[in-house]
Amino acid sequence: ATVLEFNPDGSGRRIFARDLRNGAGLTLHPVTNELWATNNGHDREGVHLPPEWIDVVRDGGFYGWPLAYGFSTWVDVSIEEYGEALFPLTREDSLDVASMQRPAALVPAHLAPMAIHFYNHDLLPPAYHNAAFVAFRGGHSGAVIGYKVMALFSNPDGSDARVADF
Length: 166
Fold this sequence. Notes:
By secondary structure, this protein is mostly beta strands. It is about 10% helix and about 35% strand. The protein has helices spanning about 80-85, 90-100, and strands at about 1-5, 15-20, 25-30, 35-40, 50-55, 60, 70, 75, 105, 115-120, 130-135, 150-155, 160-165.
């Protein structure tokens, strides 16, 4: 998937970020106004791989699919469908994978993060101010039960992130 950017009148279409597999939830951070997303991984590497992620979507960012996941981890090209689709690999492919940045948060495979919402109200304790709530639906092959909400606590730029069931 790509994240496209347009001018308000619909002109000026450009690719903002590329090679997300399934950026399901998108939202803007209330402090930085940066775009954040949740991403669902692929299905062929078993119940524990690949981890899914929550991160800032950066201008010009490369997010791996179909070559890699997580933090510059190549997909298993010994899986016939991947090997056939990806070979021959190019120098550009290697440079793209090497350019991947560490996601703010990785969560278990097939947990299927869907929606993300940053909380900026005062009903919950102060620790939750600007924390993200992420809704999960769980997948068909996951080792972790889905259908839950997790809280993601991080600095506004996504650093020092930690997640916990809410």
